[in-house]
């Protein structure tokens, strides 16, 4: 029984460690310099990594960010409308670029993946709705996705659910967080009320939805739509969010779990 209790404690510690190290990235504006990509812990505000964003300039605010495992997709509509930079989050280096077919303005990016194809979703176009493109090269645009008007951001990133924030004119026309069907162009379904009316960025890591706003807040929302944490950022706002969680547990979580099992085996040998 004591061994079982030790195992439960080890597994709980591993799970907590995995959740506390969510790989969330944001874009902040540095006065007089430009834009930075930062890897931030959404629960503590600790910044683990900082890279200079490509082709940035002071006062840029219309930006989008999305992530998928070992890639970040970044765009800056104020500098290069419709151009996507694919960035290695380990080095900050740009590995490739491409232009979205049609050159629509973009101020939000989301990512969705399946076995056959990967997509980027964008907000910010002049007709006030979500567009979808092939994530490989920005081709094959699909317009008017979701029926959410004036979407403020897009959150996908883990290959599963896709969310947006804005006003849906279907039904009562409520403002809030809406969940989109990533494969079929259907009206979005209500998810939850938005914690702010000035949302700038969004990311989803498969467990939590993260939203940032113009007041310098970073919100963590669970799978049921409840705000479980509000982090006040230190004098800045995140104008875009993305997550490189991908699918499955974090590599660090796997390592910790292995260490936990090794420790349990050691305890059993000593007994």
Can you walk me through this structure?
The chain is mainly beta and 271 residues long. It has helices spanning 2-20, 251-270; strands at 24-30, 34-40, 47-52, 63-68, 71-76, 83-87, 94-99, 108-113, 118-123, 130-134, 142-145, 148-155, 162-168, 175-180, 189-192, 199-204, 209-213, 217-221, 227-232, 238-243. The protein folds into 2 domains: 1-21 and 250-271, no CATH class; 25-248, Neuraminidase (6 Propeller), CATH 2.120.10.30. Helices cover 14% and strands 43% of the residues. Helix 1 packs antiparallel against helix 2. The longest helix has 20 residues, at 251-270. It is globular. Mean pLDDT is 83; it is low at 6-21 and 248-262.
Instruction: Give the total of beta strands.
Output: 20
- Compute the separation of the termini in Å: 13 Å
Order of strands in the sheet with the most strands?
Answer: 3-2-1-20
| Largest sheet descriptor | 4 strands, antiparallel
- Going by CATH, what is the homologous superfamily of the largest domain? TolB, C-terminal domain
Which short descriptors sum up this protein?
single chain; 271 residues; mainly beta; Neuraminidase; 2 domains; 4-stranded antiparallel beta sheet; 2 helices; 20 strands
Summary of the model, kept short:
By secondary structure, the protein is mostly beta strands.
Give a topology summary.
Elements: H1 2-20, E1 24-30, E2 34-40, E3 47-52, E4 63-68, E5 71-76, E6 83-87, E7 94-99, E8 108-113, E9 118-123, E10 130-134, E11 142-145, E12 148-155, E13 162-168, E14 175-180, E15 189-192, E16 199-204, E17 209-213, E18 217-221, E19 227-232, E20 238-243, H2 251-270
Antiparallel strand pairs: 1-2, 1-20, 2-3, 4-5, 5-6, 6-7, 8-9, 9-10, 10-11, 12-13, 13-14, 14-15, 16-17, 17-18, 18-19
């Amino acid at each position: 029984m004591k061994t079982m209790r030790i195992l439960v404690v080890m597994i709980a510690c591993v799970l907590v460690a995995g959740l506390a190290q969510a790989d969330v990235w944001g874009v902040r504006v540095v006065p007089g310099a430009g834009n930075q990509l930062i890897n931030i812990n959404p629960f503590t505000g600790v910044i683990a990594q900082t890279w200079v964003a490509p082709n940035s300039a002071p006062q840029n605010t219309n930006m989008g960010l999305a992530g998928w495992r070992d890639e970040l997709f970044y765009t800056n509509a104020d500098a290069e409308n419709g151009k996507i930079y694919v960035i290695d989050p380990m080095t900050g280096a740009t590995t490739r670029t491409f232009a979205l077919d049609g050159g629509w303005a973009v101020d939000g990016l989301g990512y969705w993946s399946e076995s056959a194809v990967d997509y980027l979703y964008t907000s910010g176009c002049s007709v006030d709705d979500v567009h979808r493109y092939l994530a490989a090269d920005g081709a094959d645009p699909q317009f008017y996705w979701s029926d959410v008007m004036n979407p403020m951001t897009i959150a996908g990133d883990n290959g599963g659910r896709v969310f947006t924030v804005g006003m849906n004119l279907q039904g009562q026309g409520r403002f809030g967080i809406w969940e989109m069907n990533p494969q079929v162009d259907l009206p979005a379904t209500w998810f939850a009320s938005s914690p702010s009316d000035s949302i700038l960025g969004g990311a989803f890591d498969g467990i939590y939805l993260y939203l940032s706003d113009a007041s310098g807040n970073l919100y963590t929302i669970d799978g049921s739509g409840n705000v479980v944490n509000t982090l006040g950022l230190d004098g800045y706002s995140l104008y875009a969010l993305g997550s490189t969680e991908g699918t499955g547990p974090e590599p660090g979580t796997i390592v910790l779990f292995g260490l936990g099992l090794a420790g349990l085996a050691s305890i059993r040998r000593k007994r």
